[in-house]
Amino acid sequence: MIAKRALALLGLLGTVSAGFCKNRTFWLCGDSTMAPGGGHNHTEGWGQYLQYSLDPHLRVNNSAYAGRSARTFTREGRFQAIMDKITPGDWVLIQFGHNDPGDPFNDPKNRTDCPGMGSETCPVQTDDGVEVVQTFVTYLQNATAEFLRLGARVIIASPTPNNPYEFGPTFNWTPTIYSWYSWYVASSMGGPAAGVYYVDHAGYAAQAVHNLGPESADANYPMDHTHLSPAYADLFARAFALGLKCGTAPAQQYVVNATSRIEGDVLGTCLPVNATLPI
Ligand SMILES: *[C@@H]1O[C@H](CO)[C@@H](O)[C@H](O)[C@H]1NC(C)=O
Ligand SMILES: *[C@@H]1O[C@H](CO)[C@@H](O)[C@H](O)[C@H]1NC(C)=O
Ligand SMILES: *[C@@H]1O[C@H](CO)[C@@H](O)[C@H](O)[C@H]1NC(C)=O
Ligand SMILES: *[C@@H]1O[C@H](CO)[C@@H](O)[C@H](O)[C@H]1NC(C)=O
Ligand SMILES: *[C@@H]1O[C@H](CO)[C@@H](O)[C@H](O)[C@H]1NC(C)=O
Ligand SMILES: *[C@@H]1O[C@H](CO)[C@@H](O)[C@H](O)[C@H]1NC(C)=O
Ligand SMILES: *[C@@H]1O[C@H](CO)[C@@H](O)[C@H](O)[C@H]1NC(C)=O
């Protein structure tokens, strides 16, 4: 009797904890496409739905913030706020690219990165002196290096796709340069061997939107070609979970859904990869 109860209890614990002995945090860094409240006006960020696909032992902290770029997330201390709280074993997801393009010397929002993929700098005059603006790649490499030093592992994700049906009923989407920059960051930081992974969220989300078609897309990019309805925010979170499962990042062990249950008519299947991609 007692032995039976003990066994039942052990079984229960096994199911509930799924073998995770410590609680971890999954820190999300991004813009309005990921943030709580999205871009406002009843849009939502996909980071708000990620927890539903994850075991509660990996708790999502959605620190994404509308309007931010790699530059302003750094300048405003938003990476630093996470660095102050992070503990070894945590995971960080970094996804930018919507608010990063433009001319840093002519940008009323002061958020555009310096063009280039390396150590290029753009010294911009501000009211408080000169801000030495760096490239998207440098900001992400800098944040990644610090997260690794603090014992965390990092996933760099390509930015969410804009509405591929914006101009008509034919699917029209290609990755932006930020997809390439994002995998370059993961690769240049040492890739999976160094604890840095790439999830092609752009590709996975675009695949789902393609499968759902133009009417669905037009209804679920309700405000403009970037921001998502709550339904698409949830869809994009599930597309991220598929991308995570299709890669090698050990964080995939926290995904509660079997790959065979995620793949299908809506989300599609794992995307083809080559040896260049640090997934
Ligand atoms: C969002 O809603 C506010 C208030 O209703 C409105 O003034 C604004 O134009 C809307 N913005 C967009 C981008 O739709
Ligand atoms: C760890 O997370 C689980 C699931 O959310 C929760 O039940 C438990 O109280 C947490 N443990 C600690 C030590 O925070
Ligand atoms: C997420 O982390 C930030 C930075 O530590 C913190 O200010 C915020 O309260 C956290 N959010 C939640 C929902 O725990
Ligand atoms: C590197 O990151 C830290 C923390 O976010 C930040 O304080 C510092 O300004 C960054 N350096 C560069 C060159 O971006
Ligand atoms: C951008 O920087 C300029 C020069 O410092 C400043 O006048 C302006 O208020 C800033 N704009 C924002 C949105 O921070
Ligand atoms: C995984 O299953 C949960 C319900 O158990 C659901 O809320 C979530 O959307 C699913 N995620 C995926 C990627 O299918
Ligand atoms: C590998 O895939 C990426 C992304 O699709 C592509 O940009 C790159 O050119 C490919 N590399 C090779 C060697 O095929």
From TrEMBL:
Keyword match Calcium: no
Name of protein: SGNH hydrolase-type esterase domain-containing protein
Pfam families membership: Lipase_GDSL_2
UniProt KW keywords: Hydrolase, Signal
Keyword Signal attached: yes
UniProt xrefs under InterPro entries: RhgT-like (IPR037459), SGNH_hydro (IPR013830), SGNH_hydro_sf (IPR036514)
Signal peptide boundaries: 1-18
Segments forming domain SGNH hydrolase-type esterase: 30-231
Record family assignment: Belongs to the 'GDSL' lipolytic enzyme family.
Species whose genome carries this gene: Phialemonium thermophilum
